[in-house]
Structure formats: C-alpha cells, structure tokens
Specification:
By secondary structure, the chain is α+β, with helices and mostly antiparallel strands. It has 23 helices and 34 strands. An 8-stranded antiparallel sheet has the order 11-12-13-14-21-18-17-16, with no helix packed on it. An 8-stranded mixed sheet has the order 22-23-24-27-28-31-32-34, with helices on one face. A 5-stranded antiparallel sheet has the order 3-4-5-6-7, covered by helices on one side.
Length: 826
C-alpha cells in the first residue's frame, strides 16, 4: 500500500477540499510542525512518572513499582481476551505437529535466519539487513534515508529511500510471529531473547517521530499489531522483563497517539485508513490500562463501520478494483470479527453481513486451482503472515469464514484446513472445520455487477474451467490501485491457469516497469493505435480513465454470455470504441468477439499472456497452441483468431505472481491493420493430452460472421450476427448469436444456443419461434428428452430434434410463455 507523492503543489492539493478536510489537514500540519519544533511531548519517550499519568487511576498511584505491576497484570489477566489459541499453547502445538508435520522445521529455519537478520521479503530471498539489524537501510540498493522528522522524508523518491517498501516490510516486524511460533514449538529461550533484543533495538534506533519508519500511519499500525502478537507469544518468557514490557508499552502508546493524530481520513481513505482503525481497536481493546483505551476502541470501531460500508460494494467486491486489497479488507474484517466477539463488540450486526459479502465474492473468483487472479495492484504485504500459503492463495480466509458462519460452500472451496484458522479460532475452530461437510456453491457462474466482475465456470471440481472478465469501473478514489485492464480476462482450462494477469511487480523504480505492468498491453485485451485504454498520471494516479459499461450478461447450464463496451479510446483522433463479447459454450470452448468501432485507420492488437509454465507454438498467422504438463499428461489450449489482414506473433514477457517476483513467460499478439470498423473473433479451445486441433474455419454468411468447427464426432456452426436476419449454410436466424452442434453421423442438431432474436431454423426446420425477442435459450437432446433452459418460447419443435418430449429446466420469461411451453411439455 502506498501513498501519493508529496511533490504535488500545495494549491493543487487544497483545490476543491471541503471545510472539514481543510480543518483536519490543518490540525495535522500543526501537530507535525510542533513535533519538528520540539514542542510536542510526543517527540520524547515519557519518563515513568509522566507515563503513569497516561494510565488509568490505579496505576498512577505507584510509579516506583510500575513496570513490575504492569507485567504481572498482563501475565495474569483473563480479560480482555486475545485469540483462542493463546489460551491453549500445548494443544495448539500438538495440533500443528499432527496436522502439518513438516511445518515446524520450516518455522524454526526461518526463525534462525531472522535471528541473523536475514529475511525473505517481497519476492526477494535471503535479504541481509545485518546483525544487529539496520532498520533504515534498503539492502537491495544500499540507500539509507536521513533520520529527519518523518514529514520531511520523500520516501517515494528512490534516490532518497531506494525501495522504501523493503525497509517498511522489515519494520512491520511481522517476523515476530515466526519467532513466537518457534518459541512455542521448541521452548528455546533464544527466540524470546531475539524478540526482546529486536524490540529494544528498534526503539533505540527509531526515536519518536524520527525517520521514515514513522512516515506512514499504516506502517505504524501494522507494527502495533505485530508487537501485540509478539507480546502474547512471549507473555511468559523470562526474557520479557518488566523494564522491557514498560518500554514497549510506552512506544505502543506513542504509536497509538501517532495513528490517532495522523489517520489517512483524506489522504488514503482505503485500506490505509481501515488498517489504522484496526490497530486502534486492537490497542484500545487489549490494553485497557491506557486512559485513552476506550477512545481508541471507539474511534477504531467507528472508522471501520463507516468505511467498510464504502469499501465493500453491495455485491461484495472491493471498491479499488484490486483482488489483493480485497484480501486485505477481508483479513481486517476477520480479525475484527473474532476479536470483537471475544470482547463483546456488536460485530454480528455491524460487520458480519459485509464480511460474508467479501467472502462470497472471494469464493467465486477463486479459480479451480485454488489461486486468485491478481487483478489490479498487489503490494505483497499481509495484515499478518499466519500461514505459508502462496501470495495468490486466499483460501485461508474462506476456511476461517466457513467456521465462523457454518458455510458449507466456503468449506468446499477452501479445500484443506488452514493453519491461520488455528491461530485465530484455536483447536476448536479446526475441529469445526473438519466436521463441516463441504458442498459446492449453488451457482457456478456469477455476475458481480457493482464491481464489474463476471465469472464464467462450468463446475467446482479441481479440473473445472473458468474465466474472469473485468467489465467494471476503473477504481475508486484516484484509481491508484487499478490497472488499465478494461474488458481484460483470465482463463483457467480444466484446472490449469493458462491466460493470466501478469500482476504488479513494483510500486517503485523504474517508472517504466511500473507503468508496463499497469498497461493495457500487459493484459488479455485489445489495444488500439498501440495505446492503453487508461493512461497513468503518476505511480498511483491516472491522466485518462476508461469507462466500461455492461451490455448483456446471461448465465445458464449450457452457456454463459458477456458483452460490454469501454470508451478508453474515444480520446483518439478519430475516436474508437472497444466492444467485447465472450461466449462460453460449457464443455466445449470460448468464443471472444472484439469489435473496434471507428472511422480511423488505427492498428488494433489482441494481447494474450500465458502462465510461466505454459509453452507456446505459433502454427499459422492466425493460430497458436499453448501446451503444459509432462509428456504423459500434456494438455493444450488451441487459439484461433480471425481478423482481416491480421497476423499472430509470439514473444517473451514477464509475470509477477507476487510483488517483487518476476518470471519469464510467453506472450502472443495478433495485430490487425486496416481502416474503419474492425472485428476479431477468437476461439479458445481446451484440448486433452492426445492433442489434435479442432478444424475451425470461417465461411461465407449473409449479414453475419459464420464459423464452422469440426471434430471427429461433431460439427459446430456459429453465427455472430450484425442485426436482422442472417444465414450461413443450414443455419438461419435473426438472433445476435446462434450456435448449433450436429453429430457427424446424424442429420439433426443435438444442441443449440440462441441469444437475442425471435427465431432459429436449421435446414428450413423452425427450432425456435417466439412472440418477442428472447434474451437467451439453449436446448440439448439427452436420450429421448429435449432439455430447454432460458426464456420460454411459443414453439420448440421436438420432432425437428428427434426427441420425444420437452423438459423445461429453467424459465426466466413471462408467465404466459411459461404456460405455453408447459402445455407442450404436457
């Protein structure tokens, strides 16, 4: 998570601000000025006598024995309540050893490296921060920012701070959880001693308000939460002495005051603000000895309740168009839910409905391989690292959600239990998860219209196929975490992620690399005139933003259909608009239709980005095959693109599966030159291990584009209409789209799909006839039955398809049509 550059002129920042915002900013400016001038009391660690006055009345009475009394109370108290695991150490360790026997060795190895100042952060391994740890140095570049007041440090300038995120990732001190786990596993006091040594060293090297480790309230907030978890892990350790505990409490107080004074209310009112609020709630709930604890708790609660209603759309999508920041928000809500329930906060009424919205969305965008596409920005961080899952595996949240809400569908998609659930809910949480019988979600495909995410899938098994397409807004606020991915998609075929979102890689230098990963050309969509649909204006802003609008969405058992338009190229001369339709014929293949409406002669290019372990072979100017797996289990995706005067070329690109990590991967681009309106029709066809290409070719048509796909056992005909009656060969219709499959050994079609229009005919036989245009109808012969879904129609000719009777599986039209078809069924 990153803030915008401070280089923007003051008058530009203040233009259009409300009085409330100006008042808050003025108060923060005065607070920072008083710190720089040395006037503020918060630039110094308070002596014991002064600190006793910020505690509740009972503590102020005996400052001479303050440290010992505070630690004694912390170790003995049963309220407030921390997470359940911390009351059952022996059982938790036994459960972890039984369930994940290899975990202990990995945890201890990471803890040993942490003791030597070596860490794996943000896609980089074995980073050496020194021993003792240098809290201010970027080990990658060697940059070391000055220890000026935090407000004077331009941390976004790589000449000043190098990769500031590496410095901040270290200073979140989330590795305290790793040290704590190692301590619980082994009982080795060395891990407690390292925790204390690093804690004390950090406080000595980072005086209040000095240096870039105070520059972001969110980073301060994450450090607060890490310290609290560390203190609970080492609650009974001899190395945690009264003097150490008292000093830690003083700094926790200063951290809390800093967050309270400089919340991101108007600066980054996204996960910055909610993360800061969560830390205030942590502090205010778990350390009631502070006089301001109740205020911190109330403030954190109020911000979270207010902001989550803004951040979580009605459909459960996150408002910044980033799946990774969706994950942050879900984790915030999970911690809030568990901690709140333990300590009497009204989370059921205020939080749980939003949390389930978030989890529902997360469930549907989880791919059959268990990963989540990294749409939009990914900053590589976590609220806390409580398990060892891959950066794009978000299923731990679903596992915990399954226990909290008794959701069998969450349980099914989560698959295996998560270590994180044990830490948040204790051993009982794991038992509930194991006892809960998983059930696939009721729907397969799903529209998230508020966020513009549309999921097309053919099932919930691990070998299912799915496609996620983005037809929504560019992003909230300044769009800082959005990418220029309008109408882009990711594709999983038979459980394998093949076409991927290449990710983020970096927020910092070089700027060209940051802009590349945000560009349209870096996504599975179309560029016009070699331009991006949205144009960056800085690392976290945009000069031009594309707006997408949905035209149609239909989902059924037999097919899904999506169509939308985006206006990102309307700024060109002459202007252009991009229309994209995706037809998913379940059990068969995808057809993607891209239309560029323009009077100009702009080149258009279709970009495809493959997963790093997928090989690509260009077979023909308009055909390619992507392959993966071993020789004995090799699968493939056949790609055929039809566009006038176009040619497909392969290339080498990069995929970032997590922030800072880079892998080489293949790309393909189909470039079409010409004048005026252009259209590309792409077939994406999964193939089994015995790969043989589907014979796909375009054929003459009246008022439409027509394609035939032939395999050994069937012959498909597709008509993509241009409006009005259309015909090609045996198929004629007035539908926008029509698809018919005929067995090679039969005369009659075995199934068909129709989108829009009133009628559909095959060799003169009327298969569909309706009084009014239908949105969607599909039919399939199964044995003696003709199974029909979609809008009800006046006639579905049973004899013409060789069936004995009609079975209506779904009706979405008016009652009169329902009655008419019901009569035919009878």
């Amino acid at each position: 998570m990153s803030r915008h550059s401070r280089a923007t002129p003051l008058w530009t920042k203040l233009r259009g601000r409300s009085f409330a915002e100006l008042r808050v900013r003025a108060r923060q400016w005065l607070a920072a000025w008083s710190e720089r001038a040395g006037i503020s009391a918060e630039v110094r660690v308070p002596p014991d006598e002064t600190f006793a006055r910020v505690l509740t009345a009972g503590w102020a009475a005996s400052p001479s024995s303050l440290a010992a009394a505070l630690l004694r109370d912390f170790r003995a108290r049963t309220t407030p309540r921390f997470f359940a695991a911390f009351g059952q150490r022996t059982d938790v360790v036994a459960t972890l050893r039984s369930r994940w026997p290899d975990l202990e060795g990995r945890v201890v190895a990471k803890a040993e490296r942490a003791r030597r100042g070596q860490f794996d952060f943000l896609g980089r391994s074995h980073l050496d921060f020194g021993d003792p740890v240098d809290w201010h140095r970027d080990p990658a570049s060697g940059a070391r920012p000055r220890d000026w007041h935090w407000s004077r440090i331009d941390h976004l300038n790589p000449k000043v701070a190098g990769d500031y995120k590496l410095i901040w990732e270290l200073n979140r001190q989330q590795y305290f959880i790793t040290l704590g786990k190692a301590y619980w596993y082994t009982g080795d006091e060395r891990y407690a001693a390292t925790f204390v040594e690093h804690l004390m060293d950090w406080m000595g090297a980072n005086p209040p308000k000095s240096g870039m480790n105070w520059a972001s309230s969110l980073e301060v907030a994450f450090r607060v939460i890490s310290w609290i978890w560390g203190l609970y892990f080492f609650r009974t350790a001899p190395s945690l002495t009264p003097a150490v505990f008292l000093q830690a409490l003083k700094f926790l107080y200063l951290h809390g005051r800093h967050i309270e004074t400089y919340p991101s209310t108007y600066y980054s009112p996204n996960t910055h603000l909610t993360g800061e609020a969560l830390s205030l709630l942590y502090l205010g709930t778990l350390f009631p000895e502070f006089r301001c604890a109740r205020r911190w708790q109330r403030t954190g609660w109020a911000i979270l309740v207010e902001q989550l209603e803004k951040h979580v759309r009605p459909d459960g999508s996150y408002f910044e168009q980033s799946t990774y920041y969706h994950r942050y928000t879900t984790d915030f809500c999970l911690h809030l839910s568990v901690l709140g329930q333990l300590n009497g906060l009204p989370v059921e009424a205020a939080i749980h409905e939003r949390l389930q919205r978030l989890l529902d969305h997360l469930m549907y965008i989880t791919q059959p391989d268990g990963r989540t596409p990294l749409v939009g920005d990914d900053d590589g961080g976590r609220l806390l690292s409580l398990d060892e899952r891959a950066a794009d595996d978000f299923r731990a949240a679903l596992a915990t959600g399954a226990v909290l809400f008794n959701r069998r569908d969450y349980r099914y998609v989560a698959g295996e239990a998560a270590e994180e659930t044990v830490w948040l809910l204790g051993c009982a949480g794991l038992r509930v998860f194991d006892e809960l019988q998983g059930e696939p979600p009721r729907a397969t495909s799903r529209a998230f219209a508020d966020g513009g995410y549309y999921v097309m899938r053919d099932g919930w098994a691990k070998d299912a196929s799915s496609l996620l397409v983005d037809g929504g807004p560019h992003g909230a606020l300044s769009g800082g975490h959005a990418h220029a991915d309008a109408l882009g998609f990711t594709l999983v075929t038979r459980g394998k992620a093949v076409l991927v979102d290449p990710g983020t890689y970096t927020y910092t230098s070089p700027v060209k690399r940051r802009d590349h990963f945000r560009s349209t050309a870096a996504h599975n969509t179309v560029t016009v005139a070699d331009q991006s649909s949205s144009v960056p204006g800085g690392p976290f802003s945009w000069r031009h933003v594309a707006q997408s609008s949905l035209i149609a969405w239909t989902s059924g058992v037999q097919c899904d259909y999506f169509e939308a338009m985006q206006d990102g190229y309307a700024r060109l001369t002459p202007p252009a608009r991009h229309y994209r339709a995706v037809l998913f014929l379940k059990g068969a293949y995808w057809v993607v239709r891209d239309r560029i409406v323009t009077d100009g002669d702009h080149d258009i290019a279709l970009h495809l980005h493959f997963a790093p372990d997928v090989a690509l072979e260009i077979l023909h100017p308009n055909r390619a095959v992507a392959k993966w797996g071993s020789d004995s289990t090799r699968d493939a995706l056949q790609i055929a693109v039809f566009g006038r005067e176009g040619v497909m070329k392969g290339g080498q690109g990069s995929v970032s599966k997590s922030y800072g990590e880079l892998s080489s991967a293949r790309t393909a681009v189909f470039i079409a030159r010409g004048h005026g309106q252009r259209e590309l029709v792409s077939f994406l066809v999964p193939q089994d291990g015995d790969y043989h290409a589907l014979d796909i070719h375009e054929r003459p048509a009246i008022n439409a584009r027509s394609f035939m796909a032939v395999d050994g056992g069937f012959e498909d005909v597709l008509l993509a209409g241009g409006g009005g009656a259309a015909a090609s060969g045996d198929l004629s219709t007035d539908a926008g789209w029509a698809w018919v499959r005929r067995p090679r050994d039969g005369e009659l079609p075995s199934e068909f799909v129709m989108l829009g229009g009133r009628w559909l005919s095959w060799r003169g036989r009327r298969l569909v006839q309706a009084d009014a245009p239908v949105r969607y109808i599909a039919a399939r012969v199964q044995g003696s039955e003709l199974r029909v879904e979609g809008d009800a129609v006046r006639a579905c000719d049973v004899d013409s398809l060789g069936a004995a009777r009609v079975v209506l599986t779904r009706v979405s039209s008016v009652a009169a049509h329902t009655a008419a078809l019901a009569a035919e069924v009878g």
